Amino acid sequence: SKLTNLGHLEMTWRSRVHFHPLLVRILHKSRLKYYGKPEKKMDMPYQAYFEVADGSGMMSMVLWNSLCPEWYHSLKVGTVLLLDKYAIKSSYPFKTHPTPGDSQMKRFATIEISLNVRDPPTEINIIPEEMVKPEWGLPEVKYRFITRSELDDLPHNHSCDVIGLVTFVGRAERARKREHSEDFWLYRWAHAIDGTSDQPFILELFATSQPDVFERIHPMTYLVCTQMRVILTENSSRTVYLTTSNESQIFIKGWHNGQPYTKDAKVKNFIQWMKSQSEADQLKKAVIGGYYPFPRPPDSFLKY
User: Fold this and answer.
1) Coiled-coil region(s) at which residues (predicted)?
2) Which domains does the chain have, with CATH numbers?
């Protein structure tokens, strides 16, 4: 069938009601959002953002309501989609944006692709990777992996991806989303090492839409975290740690196969370093559970 591209959509969307099919690759995936309220009677008030791209650039795609439980877990970073009978809307101005791995890629920020179960009923087709042709011109997924030795030079709120061997994982803790709110964020602290520094990555891992992975993080697993944000604490010791963002994905052993990051040079370097390590030596240093107060409070009241 005749295809369109994202650049052409941006130029012509106001003058059209029906659009030609789109062929795109998913580059980023947000956590699943629940927006239900007691006074609104909706069956499945869910929403998820994806950043999709073709040869012309990158645009947001929004999955709505009952399409979320049907499709969310099938739509992975790297998946190629053929979309038909979708809608185009003006972009929601307050959504978060991931930092693209390819800084040269054009971003179409004024509109977004809307996928609904009706008005119109969207057709979503996943194209198997072995059937994807180079002449389609779809961009590859690119990452921004850093090593632990590079972390201390990065600015506050910088976006990056990391891989490391887990040496500590804390218990799951809760924090209120807002003061006096009954909604909570679930999170846990973890340490991971990559051999480039004496210090570990300190990771604040919020429960994203991957409960199966979040609950199974344990010492001695290879942990990959994407779209993490650098946080510089303002205490005297200037501690640096990483926290998850709305678009973060977390992977541990058993989930790595077939992921696009396995081709990344820094991931391959980490695997080579791990092959030179003694598992028994690392296991002696591993810790699990317990209370982990971080960032650490000052050692005297005068410093508050």
Assistant:
1) none
2) 6-136 (2.40.50.140), 148-301 (2.40.50.140)
